[in-house]
Amino acid sequence: MGRHRPKEPSLTKLQLMLAFSLVSTAPWTTLWSAPQLPTIIVDPSASILRKGTQHLEQAIYVSNSSLSVIEVAETLDTLMPVITVLASFITTPLQRDSVNLRRAAEVTLESSRQSHVDLDDLVSHEEDLAYRGHRPVAASAYWSLLFLDFFEHILEGVIKKSSVTLDPSPNKEKEANAAIRQAGRDAYDKTYAPHHNRVVRAIARKVFDFLPPREVFYRALGDAGADRHRWGKHLRRDFEGFLKASRPFVKRMRGHFAEAPAPTF
Question: Which of 47, 139, 171, 258 would be a feasible disulfide site paired with 263, CB 3.0-4.6 Å?
């Protein structure tokens, strides 16, 4: 008799394993008093990339050196539909971080006459706030940065292989899906991987093998993403516009954490 080849784990099993690994290695303080999370709503007629671009631009315009906390939260909320497609295992933590940032900013606005809340100022004065989230604002901001950096790397990977990834021909489907999945793995290795243990890294990398077809990814972006005949020109333009706003945003946010160890709690 021939040797029996073990079956590959299903996506559901991998996601359960990953969720368990993340929970089992997370500080207990992050598992309690979780805020109620907003429902994710997808509007296929609107481009979440263009909307996200507006929030990123507004975030850096409020200060010469820091960022608007509320615009950071708005960016995360805007991108949530595509987050669930690319990396569903971080959807809930990111939603909680978005709520944490927004509530801390709202409490600050209630007690001041400011028109916006500066990230540097909020982090340095967090101890004075009446609000206490599931973890410090600095930690929520840092994990938000990791996602935006991760997403930026994925878009760069898609554009780098645009002759395949944005070609609407059905003949390119298999090659395009493989290129996007590889972009996801590369992005993970550059951002999240250093913060995960060996078990979580192995499972997370395997999850990217099960990313849905590119059409599902692009549809989650709305507007041009829903029409494959607009991928090559209009969707690419949305990618490039988002990256143009994202790069200075991520650079400035990364600079916020440059002088001290990353608050990964």
Answer: 139
Whether 68 and 58 have beta carbons less than 8 Å apart is answered as: yes
Q: Give CA angle at 210 (206, 211), nearest 5°.
A: 115
Phi-psi map region of 262: left, alpha, beta (phi>0 left; psi -120 to 50 alpha): beta
> pLDDT tens digit string along 228-252?
999 999 999 999 999 999 999 999 9
Name the residue type at position 165. Answer: T
Backbone φ and ψ of 118, nearest 5°: -80, 135
List the one residue out of 101, 46, 78, 71 whose CA is nearest residue 249: 71
Strand pairing partners for 260?
none
Q: What is the largest CA-CA distance in the chain?
A: 78
What pLDDT, on a 0 to 100 scale, did the predictor assign at position 36? 42
Q: State pLDDT tens for residues 15-25.
A: 555 554 444 44
Helices 69-86, 91-110: inter-axial angle, 10-degree rounding: 170
Please name every residue paired with 118 in a beta bridge, in sequence order, or none if there are none.
68
d(CA 9, CA 157): 27
Helix (H, G, I), strand (E, B) or coil at 254: helix
Q: What is the value of pTM for the model shown?
A: 0.82
For residue 26, what pLDDT is reported? 43
- C-alpha span between 203 and 21 (Å, rounded): 9
Give the 3-state secondary structure of residue 237: helix
Q: Is residue 69 within 8 Å of 105, Cβ to Cβ?
A: yes
